[in-house]
Amino acid sequence: MKIALFAASVMIIAGSGAAIAQETAEEGWQANSWKRQITYNGGKARDLTYDLYTLHTTATDKPGLMFSCSEEYGMNVLYSFDAVDLLSLFTEPQQSRRLRSIPMWVWTGNYRNDSAYYMVRRSDKVLANQKPIQSAIAMGAILQGLPIRIKSGGYFDVTLPLPPLDEEVMAFVENCEKASEIADEVKAATASRAAAD
Question: Could you say which residues form the signal peptide (predicted)?
């Protein structure tokens, strides 16, 4: 399905439940649950309504990241390489912008992952994963408390100032199947290392 071939309108409705943060802290994590509706104005695509969960860093004066997760689209990650309000990018109507693919390195702790391509919107200062493994790497780093550094030659080189794990992260993990799988893998690997020591 090529969404670009026809116009679509999107509406996000905040839901209720344990995964919703009532107040946004200065710096930390915020988990939310949403009911997302996509209405297509033409073409043969059917309208969609689905549950969506998000987790994002709350500081708007520095780079950060945001995960989204749904049964329909799996888990995805957005990185900001400059100060940006990630939640507003998600909830406020955005003009359609042409995305371009750029090569980027991601370090998790001291480990440099292979160069991969991410979609970038220069005006929004955000990057989006192109493959599921890219969001899995980010979630694995978060759950292990590892720093994440993102770099694209001649464009940016940023180590994200990530907050420590808290109940908001755990709320997202409980609601996102892929994040829950990664949490189980991290727990098993940590137990295996502890047994080897």
Answer: 1-21
